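Researcher: Re-running this chain for the archive, since the previous output was lost when a drive failed. Same request as before.
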Amino acid sequence: MEMIEMLRGIYRADQMRTDEPMAAHTTMRVGGTVDHFVCPEEPDQLIQTLQLGIPCLVLGNGSNLIVRDGGLRGVAISTAGLNQIHVDGVHIRAQAGVTLPALAQEALRRKLSGLEFASGIPGSVGGAVCMNAGAYGGSIQDVIVGAWVLLDGETVYLPREELHMGYRTSRVLKQKGIVLEAEFALTAGDPDAIKAMMDDLNGRRRDKQPLNLPS
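Model: Regenerated structure tokens:
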């Protein structure tokens, strides 16, 4: 069965593209086309795609990713459609495709502190957990409770202590796993103070980095 037919068994037509330019999906704005580009809206769709046995690249927000001009063979799986957030008290669960700025803004809206450091990081939850993203003295390991991860074809829940997070690394990264969802524990705070901290950190980032350029 051709690759496109296999993908049609998993995705709607509006979730699939062919010969998609990867430059549109990386912050560096470079890269040739990929044979097939899909955007799952449920974790099961992502898992089913990986089970097809065809070359796949799981793509988050496209930060720190350079794609060659010759493009990619196989399938690029974007997690952008896995963007659900659920809040229960001071706990936030977020799917892999939620961007860190969006997650930080939701925490602010709920008057929750702890994700201010993440408000300017141009990444998604999946990649952030995988590499223990951080900035300005804060990092994911400071607030994460645990994550649902695809490891060796099985979906497992890893509590914080089993994620083995270090400086820009984790068990997920070392074992080439894929983060599907993560849970964070925050603290109730003053929304004005939270916003002030976010504004300050983002101002520092703007002063030091050319955010108007592909970066």
